[in-house]
Design goal:
Elements (H helix, E strand, L loop, with lengths): L7 H12 L3 E5 L4 H12 L10 E5 L9 H4 L6 E6 L5 E2 L2 E2 L2 H10 L2 E4 L3 E3 L4 E6 L13 E7 L3 E2 L2 H10 L6 E5 L4 E5 L2 E4 L6 E7 L4
Parallel strand pairs: 1-14, 2-3, 2-6, 6-9, 7-10, 9-14
Antiparallel strand pairs: 3-4, 4-5, 7-8, 8-11, 12-13
């Protein structure tokens, strides 16, 4: 994890995100990015010696140049990597989205991109095109988000204005504010009941 500093929006987002129980890393764009993602992924799971934990790599077209083989090396992970918009592909072959739901359910880590993040609330927004779903952020017990600093906005309203400016609304959207939690069970706080119990974000500083 990096030290203090950076733009006011990034600082505010980090403080609130970590205050909600999320883990935070930041890195400059370039060769160090995959190493930071690799370190973050390892920190979010409980690794069993000698085993290659299953992961679902689905960061979206914005991170098409980010090689999963460098971030989640095949000698240490069992990775299902999803590329494309429509149809979704795995290994260059079109894949039924319902198959990916099963992959997400068996993965210990889901890796995604994001639509935007909110400094005011320490939240991250994810959106989905028709037929794609948000399973990597819902079903695995750990979720890692890769985010550009330019995607951090001041308020939720700013984020919604960004969605409106980009054209037709997405099929689905969700806003994440730290690990999944509830206090509905006998008034006690439980983590990871309705989604990942560990959530982390890698912010790529200075990235447009």
């Amino acid at each position: 994890m990096s030290g203090p500093g950076g733009s006011p929006l990034r600082q505010a987002f980090r403080a609130r995100w970590e205050g909600l129980g999320g883990q935070y890393w930041e890195t400059a764009p370039g060769p160090g990015l995959t190493g930071t993602v690799a370190a973050a992924a390892d920190a979010l799971i409980d690794r069993v010696p000698g085993q290659k934990p299953p992961a679902l790599w689905w960061p979206g077209p914005a991170w098409a140049s980010l090689a999963w083989e460098a971030a989640l090396p095949p000698d240490r992970w069992t990775v299902t990597a999803v590329t494309g918009r429509e149809p979704l592909t795995v290994g260059g072959r079109p894949t039924d989205p319902t198959v990916l739901r099963g992959v997400a359910a068996s993965a210990v880590l889901g890796v995604t991109g994001a639509a935007w993040a909110v400094a005011d609330t320490g939240s991250v927004a994810l959106t989905s095109a028709p037929g794609q779903g948000l399973w990597p952020s819902l079903l695995p017990p750990s979720h890692l988000i890769v985010l550009r600093e330019a995607q951090v906005v001041a308020t939720v309203a700013d984020g919604l204005r960004r969605v409106r400016a980009e054209g037709p609304p997405p099929a689905m959207a969700k806003i994440i504010s730290g690990p999944s939690s509830t206090a509905d069970i006998e008034g006690q706080l439980w983590i990871g009941v309705h989604g990942p119990g560990r959530v982390g974000v890698v912010v790529v500083t200075g990235a447009d």
